[in-house]
Amino acid sequence: MGLDYGSKRTGIAVTDPLQIIVSGLDTVETSKLRDFIDTYFLKEEVEQMVIGLPTHKDGNFTSIKPEIDKLVEHLNKKYPLLPIEFEDESYTSTHAKEIILFSGTKKKKRRDKSLVDKISAVLILQRFLKHI
Length: 132
Fold this sequence. Notes:
It is built from five helices and five strands. Helix 3 packs across helix 5. About 30% of the residues are buried. The chain is of the alpha/beta class. Helix content is about 45%, strand content about 20%. Strands 3-2-1-4-5 form a five-stranded mixed sheet, with helices on both faces. The chain has a single domain, classed as Nucleotidyltransferase, domain 5 (2-Layer Sandwich), CATH 3.30.420.
């Protein structure tokens, strides 16, 4: 499972059991993310979680990093056997917007920020899988 964590919304992506195909799963309000994860884990087996790390151009973390740390702390307590990894999320939103534009999606749908978050989560998970 891959997360593009945001202060308002979090994009979520998953992969097939062979880790070949990454698909956008959903975008949820970040305030409801823990409940979404708990419900999803009851239905599906998740071997690992990958969370995008937001950084500035100078390499320092953005102001959202402490929120990500709190989520990781919660997940480590609730799911101690779940490996959690991090992947650089630099430019994933920009790339996601380009993908949406070039896909021929109608203008109204291109303005849907939740779609950008979901595709960003896909890109984060794909980057991670390329490195393992």
